[in-house]
Amino acid sequence: MKPMDEFSTPTPTTIRIVRSFDAPIALVWRAHIEPELIKQWMTGPPDHSLPVCEIDFRVGGKARYVWKNPQFEMGMTAEFLEIVENKRIVHTEVFDGWPEGSSTVTTSFVETQGRTKITIEIEYLNQEARDQAMQPGFEEGYAASYETLDRLLANRRS
């Protein structure tokens, strides 16, 4: 599995994830905003799926995601706060049953010589919420999803 370029906790309330893709920015951007593409890659480990992915992609719009595997179902609602095409998406995330409240996620996209790097900054309300989010499987879920995205992007370039 290709490792993250960076997976860190730069502040007591923040997680930073950086990952590069061998694809142009327009393709990586589309893979982050189009429900039918997202359902193909944002699944986490191999036994997980994303059967619900509904997105009203505009500032003030909402999104709904539901992940499933044989043992559980996990839902999340988002609201888009800022959208700068091919550059940045800022949204809130609230997971069903998550007592620590919402987080704010900023995803930035930068292309260099046909490769796209995304940087995700997840800001939690406090350190306890950040630490709770980083339970075993959090980083692995991101890594597995991005491996799947690598394959999806390679197929779309062909």
Task: Fill in the keyword field for this structure.
158 residues, alpha+beta, Alpha-D-Glucose-1,6-Bisphosphate, Chain A, domain 4, eight-stranded antiparallel sheet, 4 helices, 8 strands, 27% helix, globular
Describe this structure in words.
This protein is α+β, with helices and mostly antiparallel strands. The protein has helices at residues 25-33, 35-41, 127-133, 138-157; strands at 6-11, 14-21, 49-55, 62-68, 73-84, 88-95, 103-112, 115-123. β4 (62-68) and β5 (73-84) form a beta hairpin. The relative contact order is 0.24.
Query: In terms of structural class, how would the helical and strand content be classed?
Result: alpha+beta
Q: Please give the share of residues in helix.
A: 25-40%
The strand order across the widest sheet is 1-2-8-7-6-5-4-3
Distance between the termini: 22 Å
What is the element layout, followed by pairings?
Blueprint: E1 6-11, E2 14-21, H1 25-33, H2 35-41, E3 49-55, E4 62-68, E5 73-84, E6 88-95, E7 103-112, E8 115-123, H3 127-133, H4 138-157
Antiparallel strand pairs: 1-2, 2-8, 3-4, 4-5, 5-6, 6-7, 7-8
Helix pairs in contact: 1-2
